[in-house]
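re the bet — no i am not wrong, look at it urself. input seq straight from the record:
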Amino acid sequence: MSKPSVKPSRPFFSSGPCAKRPGWSLSALDQALLGRSHRAPEGRARLKEVITRSKDVLGIPADWRVAVVPASDTGAVEMVLWALAGGERGMDVLSFESFSGTWAQDLRDVLKIEDLRVHEAPYGQLPDLSAVDWSRDVVVTWNGTTSGVRLPNADAIPVEHEGLVICDATSAAFAMDLPWDRLDIVTWSWQKALGGEAAHGMLAISPRAATRLAEASPRPLPKIFRLANKKGLMEAVFEGDTINTPSMLCVEDALDGLRWAESVGGLEALKARSQASLAVVAEWVEKTDWVSFLAELPETRSCTSICLKISAPWFEELPPETQGKVVKHLTGLVAQEGAGYDLASYRDAPAGLRIWGGATVNAEDIQALLPWLDWAYECTREEFSA
């Protein structure tokens, strides 16, 4: 097979940090509040603007509280789990890929929650949602970043539920519909669907969740995790008075991403851009005999973290270690040509490919990438068959 001649204009397909928005340059950060305190009026105003614009773009209900928190989406999820898990109410957690598996492991092995039920499924599948007890607190990852498997809809979650629904939405926010009337706590990060910089997380909580967080005290918490004190919920955190010092350079970049989202048409336009990328990959998979989706059911396929497996018989017969070497060689060829970067599956996932298709990626760049994957596959097959 001859080497393709056309390369993606922006060959950036990492699932985090993700591609910057189209047209981005360092000049977007010219007005960053550098050398100033984040607690100065101007600093608080910028952080509050991130909160306000995030609520507007995502359609978060007015009575929800939103905060900028430390340590990306991981920090946002962990601070909630440590604050709530182990109280009077039992907990269910869905585990079907690396990060959701981490939440289950932390609850079981680190926090050692006694009244814990883990609903597990292998990569490519979802757990049995009908087995979840929504009278308990439930931890659900809306979109499995490392498996490319997502909840197909909100039907399994009752609008009226006794427990809190804690939703890790980091690779779903700004690309998929989130049912705010069925969720209570939602987390995400800047580095995913809007291509922001790393290390900062976002936390949105419903009024019910705010009450629980203000009252819950199953264990002492380090300062970086505290959302409440003896006086109750720390309301200032939800007004831009962050727990620790944020990067104002990253704050400016987050604002740039949010303004871009508004300029292209808001959430509906962001979803359409992501769906367009998935459609391009789906059309290619349909006519390609060596690759298939890791997600077994079409309705559970992610439009952001598009995970693929190499389904050629010769590859499937290889031991896992050799499969990993094949994928490294294949993706390395594409990267050497400058046609696509960071395309290998997550380290804990089955060996395969992962293409980020979030809103900041242009579908035409994915279209240009796919012939390079075909070319690299043929080169790799010849290499490992020799």
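see?? The mean pLDDT is 97. told u. also The longest strand covers residues 65-70. so pay up
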